[in-house]
Amino acid sequence: MPSPEDQEIVATGDSQPPTSAHHSSASFNEAVNASRFVKGFGITALIYSIVSIFGLTLLGGGIGVGVGLFIMRYDEARYYRVLGIVVIIFAILGAFIPFLGPALLSGAIVGKGIQILNVLSKEGRNDEEWVPSRKRVIIGTIASGVSLLISVVLMFLSFIWTAVRLGQHRA
Fold this sequence. Notes:
Layout: H1 4-12, H2 21-24, H3 26-53, H4 57-74, H5 78-93, H6 100-122, H7 130-170
């Protein structure tokens, strides 16, 4: 005997079973898509920070500009366009203020990751994309959190080093 879902498929002529509101909500679908962004760019932010550790300002700036351009083209949403432009600007400013670009990118990814985790905590638990999306967000948020920590610590140390050097020149 066919299940009620199968009977509804036959009755309506749909080839897909009906989905619940959670499965097809715009916020859940956005969270699933954004989880891919958070994982990929969270790992990218970590690499960007690690490159910055080695004092490769020019390479780091190039990475920042490239990442910004890619973010701008990632999606049509205004968030991605604005974030891409800001990452490019901060990558260029990174020549004067080290670790600024990776810190900005990392902070934005951490914020987006937290936002997605909030959506996933409320919606779509029965959807097959929920578990992989949650794992992607956790990986990306942790990677970008580590990147943010590295960037902030190195920015702080850079300011202290600059202040010490300026103090030595005045003495």
